[in-house]
């Protein structure tokens, strides 16, 4: 169910932010999610040496996680009853990153019933795009209201 820009939508967006913060995997990253509007999400995170591969830059898993999460949450703004699942994700690396603040910007592209398409991009502290991705997301049987971190 899509929601318009009312208090119901705002409540859903704040609950999605709580869901992100409550996920155990996000305890491994210095990151935060902000839902910026319907079909739009932003994740900011700090890259440190802890995320490096052997050649001294951020490993691709960091790119994937942040691109996937930003696109996922952008799509889940349009769904208030169910948790979405990533069914596929394409990603492109355009620049290595070694340290500093990185922003993942997610944007819903299409789909309003069962399958959703969203894209995202990563921007480094200098404003350069360092990665881009597109994902497809499917409604699951998992109720959002049943998840401990989701409190609308």
UniProtKB/TrEMBL annotation:
<protein>
    <submittedName>
        <fullName>Hotdog fold thioesterase</fullName>
    </submittedName>
</protein>
<dbReference type="GO" id="GO:0016289">
    <property type="term" value="F:acyl-CoA hydrolase activity"/>
</dbReference>
<keyword id="KW-0378">Hydrolase</keyword>
<feature type="domain" description="Thioesterase">
    <location>
        <begin position="56"/>
        <end position="129"/>
    </location>
</feature>
<dbReference type="InterPro" id="IPR003736">
    <property type="entry name" value="PAAI_dom"/>
</dbReference>
<dbReference type="InterPro" id="IPR006683">
    <property type="entry name" value="Thioestr_dom"/>
</dbReference>
<dbReference type="Pfam" id="PF03061">
    <property type="entry name" value="4HBT"/>
</dbReference>
<dbReference type="InterPro" id="IPR029069">
    <property type="entry name" value="HotDog_dom_sf"/>
</dbReference>
């Amino acid at each position: 169910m899509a929601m318009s820009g009312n208090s119901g939508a705002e409540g859903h967006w704040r609950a999605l932010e709580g869901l992100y913060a409550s996920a155990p995997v996000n305890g491994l990253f210095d990151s935060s999610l902000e839902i910026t509007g319907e079909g739009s999400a932003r994740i900011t995170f700090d890259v440190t040496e802890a995320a490096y591969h052997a050649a001294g830059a951020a490993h691709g898993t960091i790119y994937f996680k942040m691109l996937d999460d930003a696109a996922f949450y952008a799509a889940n703004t349009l769904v208030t009853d169910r948790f979405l699942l990533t069914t596929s994700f394409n990603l492109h690396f355009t620049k290595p990153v070694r340290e500093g603040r990185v922003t993942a910007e997610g944007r819903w592209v299409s789909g309003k019933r069962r399958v959703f398409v969203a894209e995202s991009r990563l921007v480094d502290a200098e404003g350069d795009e360092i990665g881009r991705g597109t994902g497809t997301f499917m409604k699951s049987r998992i109720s959002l209201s049943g998840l401990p971190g989701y409190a609308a």
